[in-house]
Amino acid sequence: MKKTLIIAGFAALLGTSAIAQDVGVSMAKFDDNFLTVLRNGLIDYSKTLPGVNLQVEDAQNDVAKQLDQINNFIASGVKAIIVNPVDTSATQAMSDAAAAAGVPLVYVNREPINIDTLPDNQAFVASNEMDSGTLETLEVCRLLKEAGKTEASAYVIMGELSNQAAVMRTKDIHDVIGGPDCGVKITILDEQTSNWSRDEAQNLMTNWMSTGTPFDAVIANNDESAIGAIQAMKAGNVDMKSVVVGGVDATQDALAAMQAGDLDATVFQDAAGQGKGSLDAALALADGKAVDQKVYIPFQLVTPANIGDFLSKN
Questions:
Q1: Angle, to 10 degrees, between the axis of helix 91-101 and the axis of helix 63-76?
Q2: What pLDDT digit, counting tens, does each position of 29-65 carry?
Q3: pTM recorded for the entire structure
Q4: DSSP state of 109
């Protein structure tokens, strides 16, 4: 039976008894701040587990390369595989390959399209994306209302459109703005993708500002995009006190931007916790233990009021 478990301390539930086990890890790309924290957290945790050896590969944002890595892991005889998918709509082939070989597979951070049909020896560890964009946008609404606005306009910067997290976070934004809890009538002036990239977001924001259209907020699917927008606004001499900017991930760069008074809200996504949880799940499955197929590690809103609680986390 497939179950959903919301949990912060997965290791306490599972424990690990794996000895001399190789685990293959395919990351969507190394060149990403949040995924770097996740990867490093996973590697650091593995070093505390005797006999556990990781083979960590960079898929370089290439779906075909990632599938090749999974097949190579299988051929090399790993006991389990952890995948941070390049494209969440392309995960069925990965699941099929692992299932055919009888190798346990755990998806981390990005929800696979086949989440509801995963075999018993596969699982998903992440944070529930229904919460991320919701927490972010509700805080943007609160800040706009606090500033005395009853109507406002905003730009939305999306992540990679092939990624379930970007799709869900954008839906969250629309749901909050169109729902009863915002308290401010927000008009979305435009929404485009930055592909999670700081540079692309900076260029996007620069183009938006060139139109001369007034705006009150920028709601980004991730912190890198929020930071890129901030860089563009500062280069354009925008008074950052006049604009509300939100992001997701609570990376160290984002927290620095918040301390500087430029970023108003972000949402802590426990990168190291997700990495740790994915390895716990992979080792448990390799040992033949039952694992809940959806393991959610909670998101938490970060604001200037509670930033001190998060400075040493991501």
A1: 10
A2: 999 888 999 999 999 999 999 999 999 999 999 999 9
A3: 0.79
A4: S
Sheet arrangement for strand 185-193:
185-193, 151-158, 217-220, 244-246
- Reading phi first (left if > 0) and then psi (alpha if -120 to 50, else beta), residue 60 is in left
Question: Buried b vs exposed e over 194-222: b needs ≥16 C-beta within 10 Å?
Answer: bbbbbebbbebbbebbeeeeebbbbbbbb
Instruction: Report all structural domains of the chain as residue ranges with CATH numbers, in order of start.
Output: 4-126+270-296 (3.40.50.2300), 129-268 (3.40.50.2300)
What distance in Å separates the CA atoms of residue 143 and residue 132, rounded to the nearest whole number? 17
SS3 229: helix
What separation in angstroms does the CA of 150 have from each of 3, 31, 144, 185? 42, 40, 8, 6
Nearest Cα residue to 140 out of 111, 169, 161: 169
Q: What is the pLDDT of residues 180-206, one digit of tens each?
A: 999 999 999 999 999 999 999 999 999
Question: CB–CB of 274/127 below 8 Å?
Answer: yes
